[in-house]
Amino acid sequence: MGFLDQLSGKLSEAGRSIKQAGTSAAQQTKDFTDRTKLNAQIHQYEKDIEAQYTALGRALYKQKPEEAKTFAPEIVAKIEEASASIKKAQDEILAISNKKICPVCGRQNDASAKFCVGCGTALEVDPAMKQEEEKKEEEKASDKTPESSAASSDSSSSSSAPEHVTGEVVDDKTTKEA
Ligand SMILES: [Zn+2]
Fold first, then answer.
1. How far is the centre of ligand 1, averaged over its atoms, from the C-alpha of 93 (Å)?
2. Residue closest to 91 by CA, chosen among 178, 146, 149, 173
3. Residue ranges with CB less than 5 Å from ion ligand 1
4. Gap from CA of 121 to ligand 1 centroid (Å)
5. Using one digit for the tens of pLDDT, what is the confidence trace for 2-50?
6. Which one of 28, 100, 118, 138 has the fewest beta carbons within 10 angstroms of its own beta carbon?
7. Is residue 125 very low, low, confident or very high in pLDDT (cuts 50, 70, 90)?
8. Is residue 128 one of the residues assigned to a domain?
9. Do the domain assignments include residue 93?
10. Would 8 be classed as within a structural domain?
11. How far is the CA of 124 from the centre of ligand 1 (A)?
């Protein structure tokens, strides 16, 4: 029915303009607040999703590392590279502070310690430290020959810094920490 259709069209138009006129400043403020609130909610949900994706990737990498490698080799390579860099930096910090980590309990010990202060595990003595100690004893013993001991101290101190080869394989400990 043409007339009724026209009428209903006019009515809804009228309704729209009334509604627009009724959009008071207070209503606009409320709309703005609501939009802001909703946008904040969306942002929070997006952040939550990102965190879950991260957790999903970590779970996959931990539980099915081979599948993770097959699925996303570049990402796994970046993780392992960064983990190796972390390990290297940690080792350098230990070397600088003259400490070593117990492989059993993870406790820090003096680099010269033969046993862990935490769990008593026999600790590997750094070859460089060993040389240093032997050198000192030698120096004490051979005070009368300063030339030869000076020569040996030169050669051993230049090789005392532990050499780190960038590993493509991440050891278990680093993987667990990551
Ligand atoms: Zn220990």
1. 19
2. 173
3. 102, 104-105, 107, 116, 118-119, 121
4. 5
5. 666 776 777 667 666 656 656 799 999 999 999 999 999 999 999 999 9
6. 28
7. confident
8. no
9. yes
10. no
11. 12
